[in-house]
Amino acid sequence: MEDNLVQKELFYLFGGIVAIGAAGFLAWFRSGRRGDG
Question: First-to-last CA distance in the chain?
Answer without folding.
Answer: 52
